[in-house]
């Protein structure tokens, strides 16, 4: 993969947008984490802090008509696909103004109008569903491509294998995008698979597979673009494995006994997708430090407004309990 | 006696069985260093090592089928699924394989495995992490179904489950894991098909399962103050079911209410209600048999909606009054 920004196909504007989206995701999740600690968010949440480049890079290759399926760790996917953060935040607080009217929560944020077919509480469930959405695209000649996000852990579910095979034999316009953040809830990928790269599994299904640096947003965007182009031109599915790292614990309570603090520090200090990309943009005079601070300021305001919106929004009324069970 | 939590009571039974029987082992996702999603297996890896505390990939289909095969060949696996909702992915192995194997093979094999399923709502985990689908399991011939409501029962029933030669579905309630009660350190078992009268009473029999046993006992306390005395029965095992204890109680109190968290429609409470209706207790009834179960909705995320979806203490009180004061 090419790492020189001058050779990228992206305009300065597009690259600044990628940086901004990554920063928005991180700030959103830092706010979520704080609200959770304050007891304002019920249940649990799975943060993707440290993994922002996979969501943003992958979605940069998609059009508004293209679709994604997401995972339990889906805030980043949602934002990168264009979700509004006010109804996202409201959903996390269980409010009536949320994407799911307070009924779904963090693990079930969806917005079909922007092509987000939903986060999912069931590991690997998004792969067959995404395959089906790609089938609809093919049958109705819609031209859209579907990108399925999933984790390294999900690659050990039968659903992963069955979906890849089906998508391959039917030549469907789908991109299987694995965010390999090195662990499931605790299971290290090194112990849970006996191959070097999850992308090697593509061979078994007769489709191309690549492993890329998931913390380099440009590399992610370019690799995804190639896969999306293949899918759109009728050449079928691709498996992309993007290597990354989740900085936080798996969910609300995680003593992180399955990994070392040194390893965490190394990923944080030397491979942070946001500060790395920011430095590159500054080095190549695409961005100034001042602009960066301004972007952060705008984001802070946006987050602040989203939190206020969510906090001031009404709870869903009890009469909605049995609404939307059937059409 | 010392008090321990429901989670630790389950662990203690597993640990004691693993110490005394080499064939017993546990497999599941994140049950090693992580200690399980709810901490039930914490420390077990240190004592028994990775051979017998097998941390698996996220592969419910493979690990459940693997438990079936190992059980057929003389092992006694305990399978931990992180949330009972994920049993859907393991169901073929449990329902089409484990449950019927012995019957289809003319009695020539048996499948001694325990499937541990953390179930229930109340934790804000929404629709895919909060279900109570024990009726599905109870419907399948060949499966034993256990649903303990106290640490004491959980420990004794887990020992029974591990030593039973059939596939056993062991429903744990996530909302009970931290509840405490007196539990003997020594090993003991609680037989299958023996209900426990958790509280004696005169005016009405409540048959409750899972976390509803605790809620019914709380309701009983408040009702007592208003002069209404209810008997609370916990069947503890759904399959086999202790019919006698339920029927005798209803003959004594002349009124019956079945309380369960699962969706009321087609839930296991319907089975209990019809059992009473078909029994000699029918002639003693002073009021129609009633059910109080969950609303027929997926479990919502918002905490107020979530509470409204399943019976709460106040709902039980109100329902009891509506029957007794008629
Ligand atoms: C079918 C199923 N099994 C288990 C779980 C519990 N669980 C939730 S997330 C998770 C780990 C998933 O790992 P991975 O796919 O690598 O995604 P990550 O959490 O690392 O983003 C597990 C085991 C689940 N939600 N669904
Ligand atoms: Mg992972």
How would you classify the helix and strand content of chain A by structural class? alpha/beta
Largest sheet of chain B: 7 strands, mixed
Instruction: Determine the mean pLDDT of chain A.
Output: 97
What best-fitting shape of chain B do the alpha-carbon axes yield?
globular
**Rg of chain B to the nearest angstrom?**
20 Å
Number of helices of chain A: 11
Bound molecules: thiamine diphosphate, magnesium ion
The helical percent of chain A reads: 40-55%
Tell me the number of strands of chain B: 14
Approximately what portion of the residues of chain A adopt beta-strand conformation? 5-15%
- Beta-strand percent range of chain B: 15-25%
Q: What is the top-level CATH class of chain A?
A: Alpha Beta
Provide the succession of SSEs of chain B. Answer: EHEHEHEHHEHEHEEEEHEEHEHEHH
What secondary-structure arrangement, pairings included, does this model have?
The complex is a heterodimer of chains A (327) and B (326).
Chain A: H1 12-37, H2 52-60, E1 67-69, H3 75-80, H4 85-92, H5 126-139, E2 146-151, H6 158-169, E3 174-180, H7 189-192, E4 209-213, H8 217-232, E5 238-243, H9 261-270, H10 273-283, H11 289-312
Parallel strand pairs in A: 1-2, 2-3, 3-5, 4-5
Chain B: E1 3-5, H1 6-20, E2 24-28, H2 44-52, E3 53-55, H3 60-72, E4 76-80, H4 87-98, H5 101-104, E5 114-119, H6 134-138, E6 144-146, H7 151-163, E7 168-173, E8 180-182, E9 196-199, E10 204-208, H8 211-225, E11 230-234, E12 237-239, H9 243-253, E13 256-263, H10 268-277, E14 290-294, H11 303-309, H12 313-324
Parallel strand pairs in B: 2-3, 2-4, 4-5, 5-7, 6-7, 10-11, 10-13, 13-14
Antiparallel strand pairs in B: 1-8, 6-12, 9-11
The structure holds thiamine diphosphate and magnesium ion (MG).
Thiamine diphosphate sits between chains A (72-73, 121-123, 151-154, 181, 183-185, 250) and B (29, 58, 60, 82, 86, 89).
